[in-house]
Amino acid sequence: EREFFSKVRDDLEPLVKQLDQVTREKLIPAFEDGQVAVVFDAKTKSEQLYEAMPPAAEALPIPELGLVYGVSDSGALKEAASSYFQIAQKVIDVLHKAEPTEIPDLQIPPPESRDFPGGTIYYYRLPRQAGLDKQIGPNAGLSDQTLVLSLVPKMTVRLIGRNKLQAKGPLADQDRPLVSAFSFNFAGFLDAVAP
Question: Using CB atoms within 10 A of its CB, is residue 144 exposed (0-12), middle (13-18) or buried (19+)?
Fold first, then answer.
C-alpha cells in the first residue's frame, strides 16, 4: 500500500489542492443562503419496488428522502459540480495509470438532464441489474434558488418548483427568522406505511 501511495502521491497532490480551491471559491459561496431542509415523503408509487419482490396487487408508496438547499449562486454551483466531475475523472486516470491491471480504465459519463418549469433535473439511470423500479435513480435538481438531491426524480421535480409552504404555527410566518423548524404529517405517514 505504501509503494502504491508513493507512485500516485505526486499526481494526486495537485488534484487535492484543486479540490480544495473549487470548494472554497465555488461551492461554499454558492450556499451562502444557508437554508437546508430534509424531506421525507411517499407520493411516488410502484407495484414492484424490487424485482425479487412479488408484484403488489395495488401500487405501494416508495419511501422518498430528499435534501433541499437554498442556493445563492447557481452558476458557481454548476461550475463546482463540473469541476468535481473533472477531478474525479483525473483521480481515476491516475490510479489506473499506476495499477492498470488492478484498477479499470473507467470513464465517468455526464448525467442526463431534463428541463422542467421549476429548474433542471440531472440524473443517472440505474442499470437493469440493480433490479430496482425504473422510477428510482440518483439525481439533482437545480433552479436559480434551490438545489434538491434525492433518489426519486419525481420527488425532485415536486420539490424544485416554487411552491409556497402550507404550514401552521411558527412555520406559517415565513418572514420570521427561525434557527430550525420541524413539521410532521402523522396522517400522511400512516397513509404511506399502511399499505
Answer: exposed
What does the pLDDT look like over 114-160, one tens digit per residue? Answer: 999 999 999 999 999 999 999 999 999 999 999 999 999 999 999 99
DSSP 57: S
Query: What CA–CA distance (Å, rounded) separates 45 from 191?
Result: 12
CA dihedral angle for residue 170, residue 171, residue 176, residue 180, rounded to 10 degrees = 90
Q: What is the pTM of this model?
A: 0.88
| Residue that the C-alpha cell 507512485 belongs to | 7
Question: Please, are residues 90 and 15 in contact by the beta-carbon 8 Å criterion?
Answer: yes
Give the pairing of strands 119-123 and 64-70.
Answer: unpaired
How far apart are the C-alpha atoms of 87 and 26, rounded to whole Å? Answer: 14
CB contact set of 5 (below 8 Å; sequence gap of 6+): none
Alpha-carbon gap, residue 9 to 15, rounded angstroms:
10
